[in-house]
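Input chain follows. Return structure tokens only.
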Amino acid sequence: MKYKLVIFDMDGLMLDTEKFYYESWFKFSEEYGFEYNNEKRKLLAGMNGPTIRNILARELGSDQKAKELRENLEQYRREYFLNFKGDLKKVGLINLLEFLKENNIEAVVASSSSREKISYLLKNQNIDHYFKFIVSGHEIKNGKPHPDIFLEALTKAGYKKEEALILEDSYNGYKAAKASGMDYIIIHDSNFDKDFDADSEASDLNEVIEIIK
């Protein structure tokens, strides 16, 4: 097979978390005077925490307000998931992970979330054992839409660009994947209307298996 490495985004791609993230903004947006909508979701989805805080600070006119909003938002989300007992796995995820394992194709995670959140959610959903390592968006200088996180994952794994495949769902993830020079497939989050076109797409993670074959 062509690929020796598959680089997974997490939120919206593997796990059905983006709808809750979207709704959680409205718990705090009015209090802080931050107008949130689907266009803002597209703008911010896939970006790392520091980048989002910078955007918030520019719109709110205050670094402190941006910091408080982000901290309150993350605490609200953290408490929600600490008590979460359901299944967040996207359609076809286990099938794909088992396929990669059976064919000795390494799987790694490159997510804009914090390492703490990534590790917790992977363990919560009992899929952490499928992945060789994690790269967090908080650990690199330039988050998505820059390609740094994917290039770091590739370097850490020790493969060539032509041996790797990136799986993403967000617009910023798409731009980062395209800029990386690696092959990629976009699986749009079915919770939201499709708001961009990519030149390599799949309907779900089951279809990715057929593409890899």
